[in-house]
Amino acid sequence: MPVKRVLLLTEPRKVSTPLVSMPGSSHRIPQPLGVVLVIAPWNYPIQLLLIPVAGAIAAGNAVVMKPSEVSSATSALLGKLVPQYFDKDAIAIVEGAVPETTQLLAEKFDHIFYTGNGTVGRVVMRAAAENLTPVTLELGGKSPTIVDKSANLAVAGRRIAWAKYVNAGQTCVAPDYVLAHADIADKLVDEIRKSVDDFYGADPQQSGDFARISSPRHFSRLKAMLTSGKIAIGGQTDEQQRYIAPTVLVDVTANDPVMQEEIFGPVVTIQAFGDEADAVRLANESVYGLAANVWTADHARGMRMAEQLEFGIVWINTWMLRDLRVPFGGMKRSGV
Prior knowledge:
Elements: H1 3-10, E1 13-15, E2 26-28, E3 35-39, H2 47-58, E4 62-66, H3 72-85, E5 91-93, H4 98-105, E6 111-115, H5 118-129, E7 135-138, E8 143-147, H6 153-165, E9 175-181, H7 185-200, H8 216-225, E10 230-233, E11 237-238, E12 243-244, E13 247-250, H9 257-260, E14 267-273, H10 276-284, E15 288-289, E16 291-295, H11 299-308, E17 313-316, E18 331-332
Parallel strand pairs: 3-4, 3-6, 4-5, 6-7, 8-9, 8-16, 9-14, 13-14, 16-17
Antiparallel strand pairs: 1-2, 10-13, 11-12, 15-18
Helix pairs in contact: 6-7
């Protein structure tokens, strides 16, 4: 954010005064909250730490940052660089795992910003409640992708494949399940297969562009999901490398673990729907409400579905592109 813009947002401003209060005057004087705690996740360990830190600093706050212990190399590097380049009286960094985070949460902060899963999000919220500390929680998602029969399948397949498999699917807004119109569901699988071959070659395990799973625990969890339904694409695993191939599952049921949990890996399901109302209903059944996608050649239909979907952000015919003036945040169990 340019310095001039920051100064504009933080400078005192005279505002209108109602007639009944004349001849008095009214002023809006922005003030920092105080000390902000930022707890970051492991999947984008620099971006998702420093973006909220930058916002807090711009508003005049002091910050305590806590990087994820899962991304240990990044945490160690930040632990070295932050004291070297930042004012130690304004910005501090705390490394560690659960004990250190628990100890931090016992302190009184003026705001807590947490990005991560809902289980830890509840822990953060309970700890914050002890001091009535306001929180911003950016939690998990289980993002549906609706593909209408009018959609350009080559474009949809390519962009869905990129959105799902970049960073090996370890992105909170990555498509978790695809709801494809029954007339085009099989064709969409073919288009995703072509795109996987184009992006990562015949053997994605040998591709320098395909990432690995972050930890053995997450690898085991994802591997267990591959028993759901039928594998249409991929399914290969290598525990030593923590490799899971770009995978598409079909014929899954609503009770399968892959449909109940946030996937957070390179696995996506494809299910057929009959009509627009059916697609919206299936998407809104999720307890999560972070992000969704609609793919259609009918703009009016896309906007109509977007307005009915219970998600914080809905992309139409794209993914991840966003003007910073558009808010980002989840509904339901995806955030506070």
